């Protein structure tokens, strides 16, 4: 899989990461890119007022593509997930203050795929429900996310990743339509 970029959060610069290897978690994650009629299947999160690709952490013992399918089904109700193809790896270092860790090396494996037209019920986790997460088809989320980055004090840590990926998707995948 091609490596798209490595990003360091402002609170976890390269020298911080080098000095804190023993307390850094490596987390595998997946991100689904579903494009239909020049729209992308996204998750809107009310708490952070942003759009993100469906996906999340890969469970222990789970294959990355299995994790992609599980996350996509849970978060969007997607059915008959097929034609899964590698898009790229987004690597990031950011704060992660849980279970004795100070930072995380998040490896987001991004895949394009197709799904059936009809979405089933979502199976959100409690924190996703509390954050007001909902699946939406949208044609332009980049400007919205850029405005949230510039003007919101409640933005989440993932918005830079999501906006980078959206720009790349627009450049490489949406130009076909």
Unreliably modeled segments: none
Helix content: 25-40%
- What gyration radius follows from the Cα positions, in whole Å? 16 Å
Q: What percent of residues are in strands?
A: 35-45%
Figure out the total of helices: 5
Order of helices and strands: EHEEEEEHEEHEHH
Distance between the termini: 24 Å
Total number of beta strands: 9
Structural class: alpha+beta
Shape: globular
Main features:
177 residues; alpha+beta; 5-stranded mixed sheet; 4-stranded antiparallel sheet; 5 helices; 27% helix; 36% strand; globular
Describe this structure in words.
- With 177 residues, the protein is α+β, with helices and mostly antiparallel strands.
- The chain is built from five helices and nine strands.
- The chain has a five-stranded mixed sheet with strand order 1-7-8-2-6, with helices on both faces.
- The two termini are 24 Å apart.
- The relative contact order is 0.26.
Write the layout of secondary structure elements.
Layout: E1 3-8, H1 14-19, E2 24-33, E3 35-36, E4 39-45, E5 50-52, E6 55-57, H2 64-76, E7 82-95, E8 103-114, H3 126-130, E9 133-138, H4 142-151, H5 159-172
Parallel strand pairs: 1-7, 2-8
Antiparallel strand pairs: 2-6, 3-4, 4-5, 4-9, 7-8
Helix pairs in contact: 4-5
In brief, what are we looking at here?
The chain has 177 residues and is of the alpha+beta class.
